Amino acid sequence: MTVTHHVRVYRSDEELPRTEQLAWKIAEVAVDPVAVEPAVIDMIINRVIDNASVAAASLTRGPIVAARAQALAHPVSTGGDGASVFGIDGTADASARTSPEWAAWANGVAVRELDYHDTFLAAEYSHPGDNIPPILAVAQHVGADGRALVRGIATGYEIQMDLVRAICLHKHKIDHVAHIGPSAAAGIGTLLGLDAETISQAVAQGLHTTTATRQSRKGEISTWKAHAPAFAGKMAVEAVDRAMRGQTSPSPIYEGEDGVIAWLLDGPDAAYEVPLPAPGEAKRAILDSYTKEHSAEYQAQAWIDLARKLHGERPELADPARIAKIVLHTSHHTHYVIGSGANDPQKYDPTASRETLDHSIPYIFAVALQDGGWHHVDSYTPERAGRPDTVALWHKVTTAEDAEWTRRYHSEDPDEKAFGGRVEIELADGTTLVDEIAVADAHPLGARPFARDNYIAKFRLLAEPVLAPAEIERFLELVQRLPELTPAEVRELNIVALPGVIDLAAAPKGLF
């Protein structure tokens, strides 16, 4: 039975024992030796495959090239054997490995760059797969086996998603990666078998160092969008290291008079109800998350599927001359973050960055309506964004908040929770077309829910241009035995690019 923890701000003259603080409660979940259920293990395998898929597709993109160069500039630290960097064969060559915090950095950027991996949306937004790179990096460094890795990942997902269910960050313009610092620290704590005192200190430090503003997702969105969760994962690794050395952290980090809740979130009179598994309760949160079929912001997934459907049924809708206006009636988040309610002129700018177009539902719907699908590269090219007929159609698309879709977005009933909306297309001849979609086709309740075969197909699609066929098969065979892997095999949980794909010498130079 889940336990709901009442979390409020305490004045400095009020006593709040460490064992009653949220950081400690999170640590108690992390140290619970409860078994990981088979369905959770299967989904963890799916998400490790999913992360490798999107990392493969990102290997030559600018942010990954830079982050990889930074990581490989740092040698393996003395406490272990180091961790691998996506694309580079570090199994036999220690010089191709790096310290775990830098592996978490490089691999975290590779996983997030295309905005193409898993998601969970509740009070806050999240990509819980961001927990995997730092936990895996530490596992490789210390020589943990597959069973320990599975347990660590289950904790990372559980803590991040439970925080996401309860504590809204974006309302206060705090970036959602602030939930990754604590969750990844807790997951690493489980992996290593640390005690609650050590983990609680790491959780507090993980939070303290990862609170930042949401400007990274506003206006002209920069390459930092991909780096932000990687930075949180890197900080989590360093927080655990500090805590293991007996160093303490700001306390109480959530509840303190000058803490996160009092000054960054809902203020000194605020209170949150945070659900966490009870002692002995399995960590099942990952089963409530969902991945992406399309490389775009999650709230765009269902809209791409609806546009794809309309393209097949009414191909004339691709012609802007036939359209008077298109209104997407949707949730508060979709309207104000990726819709016209954001009041970001960049969302209608054909010269905007890929990161900005990824957060423009008017652009995404227009392109998917014209193309009948979505491609992780072709749909974002400057040539595609600048096509005159696309620009004309794009500028006829607006969003509007609909109270019912907002209610469904925040519903705690999984059968009712929805991330889509209703489209009203007014044609030039005066007629109107109305259609709607609640969840993406790949969602567990969608038209074609993702299963293992879909994850494998996604991996093959994205990996084939950059990995040898034998490497694809090697990785898939290995990862599907995840809980049985030896420490040596965990170190092989990496993807190695074809010769010539990665040119380390051509990477940009920096300080390191």
UniProtKB/TrEMBL annotation:
Residues 20-271 form the MmgE/PrpD N-terminal domain. Gene3D superfamilies: 2-methylcitrate dehydratase PrpD. It holds the Pfam family MmgE_PrpD_N. This is 2-methylcitrate dehydratase. The keyword Lyase applies. It comes from the Bacteria. PANTHER family: 2-METHYLCITRATE DEHYDRATASE, 2-METHYLCITRATE DEHYDRATASE-RELATED. InterPro entries: MmgE/PrpD_sf, MmgE/PrpD_sf_1, MmgE/PrpD_sf_2, MmgE_PrpD, MmgE_PrpD_C, MmgE_PrpD_N. It catalyses: (2S,3S)-2-methylcitrate = 2-methyl-cis-aconitate + H2O. It is an enzyme of class 4 (lyase). Belongs to the PrpD family. Its EC number is 4.2.1.79. GO terms for molecular function: 2-methylcitrate dehydratase activity. Monomer. Residues 294-482 form the MmgE/PrpD C-terminal domain. Keywords: Lyase. Signal peptide: none annotated. It comes from Leucobacter luti.
